[in-house]
Automatic annotation (TrEMBL):
SUPFAM superfamilies: Flavoproteins. Residues 1-151 form the NADPH-dependent FMN reductase-like domain. GO terms for molecular function: oxidoreductase activity. Its EC number is 1.-.-.-. Keywords: Oxidoreductase. It comes from the Bacteria. This is NAD(P)H-dependent oxidoreductase. Transmembrane segments: none annotated.
Length: 187
């Protein structure tokens, strides 16, 4: 089983990137059958229909990664009670048909939602907007459990994520998502 992580922040020290890495460690420990990869998408250009066909190399690459993944685990920050515009741009590219004969790659794709903020929101507003967009794209969203971790600063030790209180919730979401993907495959 292949799970692709998409982190909605391009920041080197991103809390959400650190959370995605912690998720990888949980999968390696508890679900060793899962292949886990973080999507590299920083080079995807701004959506401009003038350059849509043929797809830019970076777009073709991310589409292929999404297409061959059994599930997508999204780790998004919250910007102004929404998900970042950079992530919207990536999802906009993914929302377009691959070719005249091949549809868009998010259709029917199992997706889990997670995120963290230093403040009290925990990204729950951003996740609601992701659900709206991804439902429109007919992705197969795992509605529960979602993971929204507030006050992440309290779970940092010496600059690294400790997840002292949230680790059980991350483990729970990992197990639920693996089961969700298995049920999706057996349908
Ligand atoms: C933020 N931040 C933020 N936090 C929040 O809980 N709700 C919000 O609406 C916003 N809005 C917002 C807008 C913009 C433009 C920025 C840059 C930031 C703070 C945000 O949660 C914080 O910077 C996180 O550290 C971003 O996630 P990463 O990069 O650490 O993963």
């Amino acid at each position: 089983m292949k799970i692709l992580a998409i982190v909605g922040s391009l920041r080197t020290e991103s809390y959400n990137l650190q959370l995605a890495r912690a998720a990888g460690a949980v999968l390696a420990q508890n679900h060793p059958e899962v292949e886990y990869e973080l999507l590299d998408w920083a080079d995807v250009p701004l959506m401009n229909q003038d350059i849509e066909h043929p797809a830019p190399e970076a777009v073709a690459r991310v589409r292929e990664k999404v297409k061959t993944a059994d599930g997508i685990w999204l780790f998004s920050p919250e910007y102004n009670h929404f998900f970042p515009g950079t992530l919207k741009n990536l999802l906009d590219w993914l929302s377009r048909p691959v070719s005249d004969t091949e549809g868009q790659v998010l259709r029917g794709k199992p997706i889990a939602l997670a995120g963290t903020t230093p403040g009290m929101s925990g990204t729950s507003h951003a996740q609601d907007h992701l659900v709206t967009m991804l439902s429109f794209l007919q992705a197969d969203i795992m509605n529960a459990p979602r993971l929204a971790i507030p006050h992440i600063g309290q779970q940092m030790e010496n600059g690294a994520l400790s997840l002292s209180s949230s680790a059980p919730y991350l483990e729970k979401q990992a197990a639920a998502f693996v089961g969700f993907i298995e049920r999706h495959r057996n349908r």
